[in-house]
Design goal:
Bound molecules: zinc ion
Helix content: 25-40%
Shape: elongated
Structural class: alpha/beta
Radius of gyration: 24 Å
Order of helices and strands: HHEEEHHHEEEEHEEEEEHHH
């Protein structure tokens, strides 16, 4: 369990040998660094001793002093040379907002270059993606009786490698449909965002039935694939042309309100999209799912969830 206040105390420590050790012990306690390590040669527990390399501590086997191990081994920080205190600061920023302001972070001395920052973000995103994959495996379902789900399709452009004979590879802009299902309940949002091959009835209804519980009130656009179809499967369907009928009696929230939520949401996707590839689009959709399903729902907030997921990666 980690709290922001506690983390901030660590981040504010000056970079001395003593503090580096303190930070390592703190990270071990939170489970994001290994707590125990066994010697590969004799399988006995290794000991944490001070050393002169960057982290200030390493694992040593009292029987084989010749092969010490880094405190980072088995964690997500293994391949990085960034001081652990900087990693903590970066994790804090990462949890604050998915959109990372690189310039500010360079000015604040978290890392010297945007390349390093990009690499660091990639490491943390990988952690989040792994968590989303576990979530998807468990099954993501939304809605139910008295619950509202807005569904919509958006087109996203991305670049795709395009083979053209001997001329080698060039990049071509491609369009990709994203099918979104968004549960809105008070201030809580639970989005499910999926790439779809086409927008046929079979594809879309398939996704709806897979992810949305029966008896849900579903607000749809006018797309003909599901127009008037959803009642068959036990849903209450409202389309935007019947706006006035669609009122959330529980909270008194009106369609416009819900629609705005969805719009903001799409904007969020667009903002992250940039001029990227299909892979990057998939990644951002997953990151948005991570944020709403796991991040903001954690009892210790987004940061708490991030620590939880980083901990899961410790081998
Ligand atoms: Zn040994």
């Amino acid at each position: 369990m980690v709290q922001v206040r506690e983390l901030m105390k660590m981040i504010r420590l000056s970079d001395t040998k003593k503090n580096r050790r303190k930070i390592i012990r703190w990270m071990q306690k939170r489970g994001i660094l290994r707590r125990t390590v066994k010697c590969v040669k004799c399988n006995r527990r290794m000991h944490l001793v001070t050393c002169h390399v960057k982290d200030g501590l390493w694992w040593v086997c009292k029987h084989h002093r010749s092969s010490p191990q880094s405190v980072r081994n088995g964690s997500i920080f293994t391949k990085s040379h960034i001081p652990l205190i900087k990693w903590l600061e970066f994790m804090h920023r990462f949890a604050q907002g998915l959109q990372l302001k690189q310039l500010a972070m360079i000015t604040d001395g978290i890392a010297a270059s945007s390349r390093t920052l990009t690499r660091m973000a990639k490491v943390l995103r990988k952690v989040c993606i792994a968590a989303v994959k576990r979530l998807r495996k468990r099954g993501m379902r939304i809605g139910g009786r008295h619950r509202f789900v807005v569904i919509d399709q958006s087109k996203f452009a991305h670049k795709r490698k395009y083979h053209r004979g001997r001329c080698g590879n060039t990049w071509r802009r491609e369009r990709q449909w994203v099918f979104g299902m968004l549960e809105v309940e008070g201030k809580s949002r639970r989005p499910i965002l999926r790439l779809v091959r086409d927008r046929t009835r079979k594809t879309l209804i398939g996704k709806i039935r897979h992810h949305i519980r029966p008896r849900t009130s579903i607000l749809t656009d006018e797309w003909r694939a599901y127009k008037g179809q959803l009642a068959k499967y036990g849903y209450d369907q409202y389309s935007v042309c019947h706006k006035k009928n669609f009122v959330d009696h529980e909270n008194g929230a009106h369609t416009q309100h819900i629609e705005r939520a969805w719009q903001n949401y799409k904007l969020e996707v667009w903002r992250h999209r940039g001029n990227r590839t299909l892979e990057s689009l998939k990644l951002h959709l997953k990151m948005i799912e991570w944020h709403h399903w796991l991040g903001v729902r954690h009892y210790n907030g987004v940061l708490g969830r991030l620590f939880h997921d980083v901990k899961k990666q410790v081998k």
